[in-house]
Amino acid sequence: MSYFAELRTHWRPLAASTIGHGVGIGVMAYVVGTFAPHLLAEFGWTRSQFALLGTATLLTLVFLPVVGRAADLFGVRRTALLGVIYMPMSFYALSTIGGDFRVFIAIVISQVVLGIGTSTTVYSRLVAERFVQARGLGLAIMASGPAIVGAIGSPLLSDYIDEHGWRAGYRLMAAFTACLGVLALALVPSGQQPAPAARRARSAPRDYAAIARSRAFWLIAGGMFLCNIAAPLHGPQLKLMLLDAGAPALDAARLVSLYAIGVIVGRFACGLALDRFAAHRIAALSMGLPAIGMFLIASPLDAWWTLWVAVSLMGLSQGAEGDIAGYLVVRHFGVGIFSSVLGLIIAALGVASSLGALLLSLSLSPTDSYAPFLAASAVAVLIGSLLFLGLGRSGEFVDPAAETAPASAA
């Protein structure tokens, strides 16, 4: 099947994964900030209290491997169903809260725990099992779901809240996620659920033991982990870092926009490149780009172009990351345990991000400068990106269930 014929043939799973991921738990990153000023103004909560929301994401480290395993055993539709049902319910519940911050944080935590089935760990399986020639582009489109919803929906939601109030805004989110979540499940092709015989052939101890013995797993996990130590610099710290590097406030805002453009360009450019060139080389190149940018920002160079180049490289790499993890996992582990492995990889990214935030805090305390953390992160990113080159010599993974299939049939 040709490249674009594959996209036409499998448009339903691609649409299901993009829509489902777009209105799933990933959209929270774009929604929370829209409601935050209104909640702080009405209830008198502090920004330090609101910052505690970041700790809720640590729960994903526990539940991502669990939900990944469920997707491998029971399929995407069954695994995502609970999240599709609960996300609208939780948004409606948020529309009824009073001033007790504990109630608010409890609902957000429940969204993380019960809505995790709508994450990329689950929905990317639809692309992994259907696409071969255009797998990289398919993963890029799927990963862009939340960003597309956020880019189009955030300004509209903000205007709606200004006119009708934040409670009405949460009810609108409830209706929006309910309708599109159900549409995503309806688009999941029939027959996607693994057969009972295939589920019986899977053994968690045997599968995870095989994963742990795989050289490819440790190269992917290690590379992703080291490259994500710098993750805090890609989030709320980005503008502060640019101001610290000497960028005027207006230029810093423009650089943040440039970073966002880089994320989009990087996502699709990397997806297309993965479909055409050696995946381990594309991964090494894409994930290594931020090292150059971080060294430039940390350097004494003060020319305007250094920050523009640095931010562009960081944005391109951040976009590529969403394609690389899923692509490398299905390339080296196949579809049978795809979500189980991807759940572990993404959990490792969460650990790296949390560790990076701690290290950044520790480095800022005595120096009040981003330069030490930038330099250390650049070294970590460079080492992590080089690990991907080892995948070119990695042996082929043998699925334990495939090994036992002939014996079971006999």
From TrEMBL:
The chain crosses the membrane at residues 12-36, 48-67, 79-97, 103-124, 136-157, 169-190, 216-235, 255-275, 282-301, 307-329, 341-364, 370-391. InterPro entries: MFS, MFS_dom, MFS_trans_sf, Proton-linked_MCT. Residues 10-395 form the Major facilitator superfamily (MFS) profile domain. Gene3D superfamilies: MFS general substrate transporter like domains. Keywords: Membrane, Transmembrane, Transmembrane helix. GO terms for molecular function: transmembrane transporter activity. This is Nitrate/nitrite transporter NarK.
